[in-house]
Write a structure and sequence with these properties.
binds NADPH dihydro-nicotinamide-adenine-dinucleotide phosphate, 20 helices, FAD/NAD(P)-binding domain, seven-stranded mixed beta sheet, alpha/beta, 2 domains, five-stranded parallel beta sheet, globular, single chain
Amino acid sequence: MTIHTGTEPESVTLDPAIDKDAIRARYAEERDKRIRPEGINQYHRLEGKFAELADDPWTPVQEREPVTDHVTFTFIGGGFSGLCAGAQLKKRGVDDVRIIDTAGGFGGVWYWNRYPGAMCDTKSVVYMPLLEETGYVPTELWAHGPEILEHAGRIGKHFGLYDNALFHTKVTNATWDETSSRWTVETNRGDRFTTQFLGIGLGPLSTAKLPGVPGIEDFAGQTMHTSRWNYSYTGGDALGAPMTGLADKRVGVIGTGATAIQLIPELAKYAEELFVFQRTPSSVAERGNGPLDEATLQILKEPGGQEKLLDSFTRNWDGFFGKPEPGVVVEDLVDDAWTSLGRRMRAQMHSVPLEQMSPETVMAAVGDLDLTLMEERRARIDSIVEDPTTAENLKPWYDLFCKRPGFHDDYLPAFNRPNVHLVDTAGQGVERITPTGVVVDGQEYPVDCLIYASGFEYGTGGSEIVNRAGFEVVGRGGIELSEAWADGMETLHGMHVHGYPNMFIIQLWQGSFLGANVTQSNNYAAENIAAIVEKVLAEGNDEVEVTKEAQDEWVEMLLRDGVPFGRPDCTPGYYNDDGHTEGRTFKLNVGDPRGSYSFVTMIQEWCRRGEFPELARRRTNSI
Ligand code: NDP
């Protein structure tokens, strides 16, 4: 493994042969033809006539009696946010933890997404949390889905989180009871129990969406969303057994995002014919997977080894904020696509001479790096894809971070197979779905099976988050969270909400915004929550609630200094709420403007001091 320092790689100077203006004009043109006035409303959820597509293919639902007891801590969401919260609470002696999930087990997004080829684009040694505690060493640089799912189960077992868990259970309501200083939680399984503390962490990828294409409900063949794979139809399994069921099938895939990039090479191997319906191409850089290298294995063996890697990850990723300062040496012990992009971004920002530094000169320098990176990706397509028309259609025309960057070694070569056909829709999306196939530009492509790699609701904020959760949280004075957030999410650190005592949220906005390593962000939040709960219990208090002043100050700072990740001039997608970035709600979908590393160090120091002056604690003697 190369150990990179703060001085490498060097910044780039844009190749003078590149016609910057022509490329930027092309970017704008491609964006404009994709903007749709209905924005996110162009999609359908897996509800109503599509409800069956949401059924759990993995675990049969078990009958059980309703639960009517009391627990100290309830966490809604059994993905890595709930697992980390449970683990950190147990470490601090809070044993009485209940995790609830609609899935039949732990794992969250990895429980549901078992499509062939599923893997994580962030290096396993930083993505898979609690390695040291569970004594596990990942097998690959970038782990595949089954290994990550197994690790979720390992955390659940190691910390005894299965004992009290409620799976296949959907919360219908959580209400704060001022007289008892407790939350009452109700579910679709008839449960009605109380909990002193409530945690919520539903993940950004829990509400699947289907394209709102005319005729979608008429298709008579096999249909699935990638988050609910049907191996009984395709054959094979998530571990990579051959999908023999597809040998005589014409398969269509709608979508070419991060999921499709992983899925398409697998489908290409087994489908008789594969039609890839593309609205916007992804950028796809190389990956280079393999077993863990010796240097990383050594670090993992040291006490605090994973923490050291995580620290290195955040410090390098923070290059997006131009940090650390020039001349400061930062080892990149992780060296994956995210840290390398962070490093390059930092080098580029620092390439502007100090006396010429201004927002404009820095943006221009970063723009040159972006153009260079995108030109590299477009050239990579030409070097791999043999058919010139297909190669041209696969080229992405937007800034790198307008869309989620992709990394895969087998995606582009899949288009050289004779059974794989790229159907480009010139930015318009598929026109219509018929009972027998998909129509693009007036031509029908008959298929036996239609796979929606059409993603998840992600970018919307405020009350939409509550809407996505599917249950209401009723706080002090009977105020519903969707009402409190009608004009955008308001929190302290993305975790605490005034008016909602003893409640903690784990999510990306308004906190570390470590989108490149969500589990790391989850675990920092979990450590923080556990430290606060331990403190409240040790003090003999019943309630903890962020003060209105502290929350307002944080929100004002976000509104003043925050820059939403999704830019209005970008091609539409979930980063920029499908091109609709106006309004306060979107403006509040930001991370700490000082950057991930600053946030993480600040929050860890806050925990270490353990005073939490922004959190009012009360003894109500109500129980
Ligand atoms: P995305 O939202 O990224 O992609 C959805 C795709 O569906 C896009 O290509 C979109 O096109 C296309 N689409 C939507 N409507 C239509 C239509 N009417 N006609 C044709 N195409 C259409 O979803 P993914 O599931 O791919 O990825 C979601 C997220 O999951 C990722 O961004 C990433 O954060 C996460 N992920 C993470 C992985 C990891 O490594 N950790 C791996 C895989 C996914 P358009 O772009 O034009 O909107």
